User: Fold PadR family transcriptional regulator from Luteococcus japonicus.
Amino acid sequence: MKKFMNPSQYGPGEQEPGNGFTGRAGRGHHGHPHRGGPHPQGGHPQGEGCGPRGGGPMGGPGSAFGPGFAGPMGEGRGPRGGRGGRRGPGRGRKGDVRNAVLALLAEAPANGYSLINQISDRSNGLWRPSAGSIYPALGLLTDEGLIAPVEADGKKLFELTDAGRAHVAEHAEELDEPWAKVAEPHRGFLDVRGDMRQLGMAVEQVVVAGDADQLEAARKILERARKDVYRLLAGDAPAE
Assistant:
C-alpha cells in the first residue's frame, strides 16, 4: 500500500452513487436542519426529518449520530414532539465512534463511507454515524498516530499503524464490538420494528385503495390499539 504524504486530503467528499451523499450531516433538502415532528410544508411525517432529529421512520433506527439519543418519537421527544420521554438510539459520544473506527480498522483498512455503512450494518441500523462524526474521529486518530491514510487500488483508505495495533491489543475488551452495546438496550424495539412496518404498510393500502368508511374504520382500529398499548404500560389488561 502506498502511503499518503498529506493526510488532510481525506474528507466528507466521498460520494455514494445515486443518493447525493456529500458528507454534510443534519441538513434537509431545504438546506436547514430538520426536527422531528410535522414538517411545516407537509414534507415529512412525524419524526422523519432528514437531519439529526430524523433518521428512520418515526425517528429512532437509522438515526445518524450513534447511541443514546433519538428514540422512536424523535430525539428526546415525547409522544407529541415535545421535550421529555426516554431517549432511544441516536447521537453517540465521540468515544463510541472512536472505538468503532479502531475496531473495524483492526479487521481491514477502510474509508470513511465504508466505516459508516459497516457500523450501521452491525448495529442492525440502530446506529449510523454521520460523516460529521466519522471524519473528525479519523482526523483525531491520525493526529494521535494510531491510524494513517493509505492508497489501495486508487482508493484512499485508513489503516492502523503499529501504535494503533498496540493500542487495540491493549484495549481489546473495551473495543469488542462497540456497536453491539448500542443495539442491546433497544433489542425490544428491534423485535417489534417489523410488526410496526407491516402495520404501516397495511394502513397505507387502506389510505390508497379504501373508501371513506374503510379509512374511518382503520382509524378506529389504530386508536384502540394505541389505547391498549398505554393500558399495558399502566398495568391494566387491554380491552378484548
Summary: Residues 187-234 form one domain. The helical segments are 94-105, 112-122, 131-143, 162-170, 178-183, 187-209, 212-234.
